[in-house]
Amino acid sequence: MRKLQIRSLKYIEFAGVVAFLIVSSLTIFMVVPNGATSVAGVFWQDWKSTEFGPLGPADVDALIKVRQAGLWEIPVGQQAADRAASDDVKDVGALLAADHIKLDEQVRGVAEQLDVVLPSLPNPQQQVWMDELSGLSGEEFDRVFVNRLRAAHGSVYEALAEVRAGTRNELVRSFIQSGLLVVMRHITHLESTGLVEYEKLPEPLPPERRPA
């Protein structure tokens, strides 16, 4: 009887291990709504259904990036409009601030419809740039303002373009479409000042390192 009990316990333990392995295997190869395969199924909770289509982590991140761009570019744009040495930089600063005020209103409206929580403060790097500009004046302010904003817009444009190319959410797609036009317009105006130091911008990836 004792041997039978021991064998029964071992069988239960073995069956439990097998069941665990089967469940783990299924979880590892679980497919998320986007059609991508999750490493361990942990991304299911990052996707949610909306009336505009599936909303994924990249969609949410894009909305956050637009919101955070406005949180620092509105005040520094207004600062440039008041303090820049060059009239061209003053005009660009005023334009950027005005556009981002409108864009910020739009992104908050989109986020509300999709139940996305947006930040209320600039990120640490943006705060560093704001503090840096606050301590500058004259031509040095103009140079740093233009180059910080030009680099930031290039980074945001790349991130938004990737989301626009693959998002499954109709509302995000429409918003990012208009957002990309604003970002490109800002890049063009910043470059029109003649102060952009192109050699300091991130170099584009060579073809062999780009996704197929």
TrEMBL record:
Any Pfam family the entry gives: DUF4142
Keyword Transmembrane helix annotated: yes
Top-level taxonomy: Bacteria, Bacillati, Actinomycetota, Actinomycetes, Streptosporangiales
Location of the DUF4142 domain: 59-191
PANTHER family: BLR2558 PROTEIN
Keyword line: Membrane, Transmembrane, Transmembrane helix
Name of the protein this chain belongs to: DUF4142 domain-containing protein
Annotated source species: Nocardiopsis mangrovi
Membrane-spanning segments: 12-32
Classification via InterPro entries: DUF4142
